[in-house]
């Protein structure tokens, strides 16, 4: 079965891909999302493990597969603002938090010395949920600023609409394997 870009984008907006729900948020976003490139977990991992995520920084999409492969979903994302801030490779989810607090990294403090930690709430750049990766300071998280989704806008993290990260948070156990490409 061949899926066109238009078909895949339609799938990301709530249609069905290969008989599996692929839901993405339907916020009105103009000029943000480039195009979703279809991924196959077999191109990245020998098995599905507890669950599998491939975060594609080029197409700005996160692909999720359940442990049995029956559930495949695609979510639009924000990605790092530059290649220097983009860590690529294999990692895993090591911790999850509802209502995360945010603390600026050392490099952010060098650039923005007036930044202060922010607790949970609408001003928090991590949104409503965070899934921490084994790489220090790299997180898959939500955002209250929906303009960021579909853009190069982060300092290294992968951001999703709050509604989508809440859904993904429930699907991904600690130990979910992740590849950022």
Key terms for this structure?
disordered N terminus; 12 strands; alpha/beta; eight-stranded mixed beta sheet; two-stranded antiparallel ribbon; globular; single chain; 181 residues; L,D-transpeptidase catalytic domain-like
Could you explain the architecture of this structure?
With 181 residues, this protein is α/β, with parallel strands linked by helices. It has a single domain, classed as Beta Barrel (L,D-transpeptidase catalytic domain-like), CATH 2.40.440. It is 13% helix and 30% strand. It is built from three helices and twelve strands. The chain has helices spanning 5-12, 106-111, 162-171; strands at 16-17, 20-21, 51-56, 61-66, 72-76, 79-80, 89-98, 129-133, 139-143, 152-154, 158-161, 177-180. A hairpin with a 5-residue loop joins strand 8 (129-133) and strand 9 (139-143). The longest helix has 10 residues, at 162-171. The two termini are 24 Å apart. Mean pLDDT is 82; it is low at 1-33.
């Amino acid at each position: 079965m061949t899926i066109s870009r238009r078909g895949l984008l339609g799938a990301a907006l709530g249609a069905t891909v290969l008989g599996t729900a692929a839901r993405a948020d339907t916020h009105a976003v103009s000029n943000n999302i480039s195009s979703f490139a279809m991924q196959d977990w077999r191109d990245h991992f020998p098995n599905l493990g507890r669950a599998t995520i491939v975060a594609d920084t080029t197409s700005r999409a996160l692909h999720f597969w359940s442990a049995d492969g029956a559930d495949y979903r695609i979510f639009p994302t924000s990605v790092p603002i530059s290649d220097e801030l983009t860590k690529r490779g294999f990692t895993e989810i090591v911790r999850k938090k509802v209502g995360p607090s945010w603390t600026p990294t050392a490099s952010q403090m060098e650039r923005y010395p007036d930044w202060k930690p922010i607790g949970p709430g609408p001003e928090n750049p991590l949104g409503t949920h965070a899934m921490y990766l084994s790489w220090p300071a790299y997180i898959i998280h939500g955002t209250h600023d929906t303009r960021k989704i579909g853009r190069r806008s982060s300092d290294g993290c992968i951001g999703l609409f709050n509604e989508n990260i809440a859904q993904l948070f429930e699907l991904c156990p600690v130990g979910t394997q992740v590849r950022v490409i």
